[in-house]
Batch of 4 targets.
Target 1
Amino acid sequence: MKSKQIPIHSNFIGRRQEQEKLLQIAHSPKAQIIVMYGRRRVGKTELLEQTFRDRNILKFEGVEGLKGSEQLKRCYIQLGYYLKKKKRPFSGHETWMEFFKILADALRKGIWTLYFEEVQWLADQKDEFISDLKWAWDNHFRHHPKLLLILCGSSPSFLVNKVLHSKALYNRSMHEFHLKELSVKEVKTFLGSRSHEEVMEAYLTVGGIPEYLKYLKEADSVFLGICQNAFSSTGLFVREYDRIFTSSLSSNKHYQKILDFLSRKKFSTRDEIAHHLGISSGGEITKVLEDLERCTFIERNTPYFADFKSLLVRYGIRDYYIQFYNKFIRPQLNRITLGDFDENPGMGLDVSSYQKWLGLAFERFCRSHHTDLADLLGFASVRYRHGVFFNRKTQDKNPGFQMDLVFDRDDHVITLCEIKYQRRPVGMEVVHAFEDKIKLFETHLQLKKKSFRRVLIASHGVQKAVKTGAYFDTILTLDDFFGS
């Protein structure tokens, strides 16, 4: 049996924790199943192949748009190569069960990794692939002590509902991996000598997605890389939006409508989303929102004092690239397609509007990295509730306002964070505005038994007057997020 040869990727970085867990599973004395899912381009394939490159790997990959019989045919052809047969007769009547039986017989000896990529396409979104795999596992694969079976895909909905939650493979030595984007520190390593400002700009624009970052790394500057790939007619970011829905979210018509709707708003309630779709706020909308959360495309923003299922929950776009696409690429898609910016892609991006947008993206970044902030602020060992605080404007005496991030700590302290992302140091105006917010916050919640800690997160620091005024208990800058 000939296995797939995986070359060493010299630029592969990060993922140490994931690799350690994967190798620990692989060293088990019995057969194991790994189920990995994650957003398109997040680096699932690279992680798996680099981690298990020293094992014998047989890889079978689903192809977008092919029917189940065609997927099976391609796998039989690939199996023929692995078995060192140039051609393997395929009548069209074969089944996945027969395919798995041939594999099981061929893998009785040795250390093997059986790797199925884009399982949702291999299965053609149906149950036959999984049910036949269950039969093969129970009767054959589980008896091979050095066999590792990997099911991987960019459709979290299929992998979770049809595999992890299915009765077919339930509780059969399965290990779940939801692979998320690189951390901002890993992005710093990936981009090499770029400044902290450029690294954060890259992260806030396309997230920690290795494939996107690769194109920014190759450019003279992160800004130029963004423009070249977003506003040139052949740019990667121009068509990537549609490809995301094909690979991850092709099974429901509501997915793209929700993302399009949320991209026009900072936050939106469940009822507002359902009303936009013209459906009831029941089980259907719940499933769709859960799928989008699993893909890490959206996030729920719950006031820190509210329950996880509270009616006050608001949803917003979490994925940085999707936010950027809908704000800057989509409105100019016709001009981009016609090549209006091909000679000078930088003309496609309004810098002033982009800087304001980066400010909102930085707020989302800080909220999603609350554990890092708790560590930086010295209370990581204390239990806390966290979240944005907002109230609607109802009267002149009680105007609407928002606290960017609130930590309600079990040590009777509330840490209030004001978040500013601008290219110049923040001046004294932030002190006056924040003090007004605190007064409204105290009035609204009538908090008497807890003390406040005031934190300013200012990307590019503060003016001397703010620092010497000692109004804020702690001031954090970009450097703090990178450990320097």
Target 2
Amino acid sequence: MFNKETYIQRRATLRSKVGSGLILIPGNQESPMNYPQNTYHFRQDSTFLYFFGLDLPGMFGVIDVDNNHDLLYANDVDIEDIIWMGPQKSIAEQAFAIGVDVTAPLEKLAQTVERAIKAGRRIHFTPPYRAENQFLLSDLLGIKAFKIKQYVSLALIQAIVSMRSVKDAEEITEIERACAIGYEMHVTAMKMAKPGIMEQQIAGAIEGIALSKGTGTSFPTILTQNGETLHNHNHSFALEAGRLMIVDAGAESNGHYASDFTRTIPVGGKFSQQQKDIYNIVLAANDKGFSLSKPGVTYQSVHLQAARVIASGLKELGLMKGDVDEAVACGAHALFFPHGLGHMMGLDVHDMEDYGQIHVGYDHEVRPIDQFGTAYLRMGRRLEPGFVITNEPGIYFIPALVEKWEKEQINAQFINYDKVRSYLGFGGIRLEDDILITDNGARLLGNRVPIDPAEVEAIVAGIES
């Protein structure tokens, strides 16, 4: 948790941006695994963390714009809670730590909202992503639960996005803590990438690092030799010599800020020439994306430049043909690169995605491109100092996609399908870094996880310097 002035200033800024009304910011509740008292690891709502900072279940924040004050609704613990949890600070004490003077039990929340509605005041809230908060808002507002998302406040979403998009120094420090944990996770995975080791062993080892130094992973770990499946969470195979293992994993700091790195590792410690050829194209696209990222540039344009690097490299290998710019304009590269270059990152690994990605990654100026592959670009808008984004190009050989495109002769003027078929079984390669947009360019966050192919080989082989 940051100092109280941080939260006081954030709420004051939000009030000034929204202008009027009552802002509802529900915290999260415990989520049971299989019976009420056996819960998943608690994760507080990121919006609540950003404005109220308290990392406990059963809290609800209210920002009263018209009357210029903030309220925290929560219940103090009783003796039965203390038996199991130990002594706890009172709600008033916790509220004082974040600069909130007005507290009340949760049962009083409904009265506050009811009075505001009767007075004709605007009620602001963001889209709930958990069912319990959807039903809570339904009860408070008298709106059927399935219609709640029709009443979310666009003004509130836009105000919060404008604030959370630009990270301050405290937030960058937290992200770099998460990056330091991520670095250790990925180097450990490289050292363990030996034939016969189970994917599950490596996934468990690196998730243990995330838990021992932070609050755990920032998203479910992707670790697989079958890297042609972009989000492959199956860790059930033994590593085989000569195959590639993709590790897409990140940590969450104790302050709940995320890191998100991806590396592709040769099992046993040696890339084949074919693997190295594809790897170097992806690395060149990654480097290109980083070099172009700076204030004033749209990330959509950076994505398309990275796609041109990929198409050009694949053309040199004989997998693609024709004019590179025309091929990218037609989306031919998406057979191999069917996702976006990156996304916002912060308190969420896909930062603020619960508000609706169209509001986070795009704006009135930059809109999504409705084309297979490029349509998956989550972050397209113009970059500003303080943005934290991922840079993650990749090349994949997806048998079902290749079969579909060849059968339908999609972009056949740009793709040598005979040659592409010889790469089926290759898997995939993705290389991802986290970057901060600065006043005149960008910088990598944290120490760069080893990415040079020779260095990666040396680490896997156990001969790194």
Target 3
Amino acid sequence: MKLDNLFFGVFQITMKAVITQSLPRNVWFLGFVSLLADVNSKMIQSVLPLFLVSVLGANLVTVGLIEGIAESTASVLKVFSGALSDYWRRRKELAVAGYGLSTLVTPLFAIAINPAWVLIARFIDRIGKGIRVAPRNALVADVTPEAQRGAAYGLRQSLDTIGAFAGPLVATAILFFSAQNFRLVFWWALVPGIFAVALLAIAVQEPPQTSTIKHNPLQWSALKSLGRDYWMLVLVALLFNLGNSSDAFLLLRAQQVGINTALIPLSFVVMNITYGLSAYPIGALSDRIGRLGLLVGGFALFALIYLGLAFAQAPWQIWILFGFYGLYLGKTQGLLLALVADKVPSNLRGTAFGLLNLVVGIVLLPASLLAGILWQQIGYQATFLLGSFFAVVAIVVMIGNREHFGRASVHRRK
């Protein structure tokens, strides 16, 4: 088959999958909640490393420590909130609590006077994320037919990324018109956070319970029933994230190459445009052709991007790499969630999502700390080459165990 015919065939499958999807309204509402919440979080995250370094005088190790502690906290809590949502059979209330806590702590960034304040704010914000993510992801699977899961997670990710590039755009505009007033960015970030919590509380409906029998989802028999396919997926995610340090280092690399400070938040805009445009069609395509090849391609793209960041010398090269970084996210984030939903029983979905995030969170702190130490002691190239290396290791393990990444059997889906 000619290469152009192959691309045309893939394009036809993708567009047919996108056009014919009729997804539940809960998926759309959850997507819009994520959109608003990401405007809030990305307004903060797109300027926070620069605020820490240029205003509060933090060094790179401190930046890595704050980000590592914050993200690890979120990941540890996800397993408990996911398990609680499986036991309680109520996912919406936990999601509301998580989004509400993150919104409530937003003003703390605006009044921070030293890095310790930022650490506290990020810690509480990530507690909120840890509470909401696993129940929300399980809720998407609860209301979506299996044949549409890739599309459902892709749609939620696409809507999420609209907020993820809108947030930095708003932050950039505020910095531009306020003579780089970082604190004003944080105050304005409070507004979309409030709207996100209100929409979730009012519009999203909890699906009816299919059983009133409660089981402890963290007992050994329940964890064992998650299956070998699921645990192999967890292993691959762990290996990959050993080199996937905080996005704060991407922003600092952009500044190092010479991109103006006021324009650096736009890097998230570029990243999330390609992320948002690719996540839904790639998710829908994975429902038709399978997820393994697309996921391997996403990890390979990450390895090349980090290799490029290690050797880039000009601002235009950084902008291109950020665009491809968004494509990597579109090819991986929704697919990982869909694979988890494929592999585990419905009554353990929250626990499965939480455990995956726990394992990833375990390595986030050392990964971010190591990235900061390597950058400070050896140089920025060491930070990004390490990330590229671990992505390749994850690809090798995944290909070597490809039988664990196919579709779930009929028995496993029940």
Target 4
Amino acid sequence: MFIGEYQYSIDTKKRLSIPAKFRQELGRKAIITRGIENCLVIYTAESWEKLAQKLDSLPSSQADARGFSRLILTGAVEAELDKLGRVLIPDFLKEYAQLKKDVAVLGLSNRIEIWDSKIWEDYRKKTEVAVGDIAEKLKELGI
């Protein structure tokens, strides 16, 4: 399980170190793709397979389903962790997530999110202010 928040930097060769606590579960290969809210998401091969199956089951007759599947699937790349636990972030994904040098690496149970540090900080602060309202809405889901 991936949990926690870590601050890292993308090096000049566009590589990002994955937190040591995440590496064992992630393995040598991972899938990186576009996420919602202009972040990147890293999945294990197993989690990616489950997500891909769910995307395959969406109705291709619905424009929103097609668009969402296209965004996630066409943005996906296989990434291999090097000996130091780094992955290469392709330019098109860096641009999508507006990643500069400093990034936040977030463990979210079955996935890892990568955010530009400034964008993450703004999002986190906004969400912290609204956490009471969010909790009320989630109560309907039994959370």
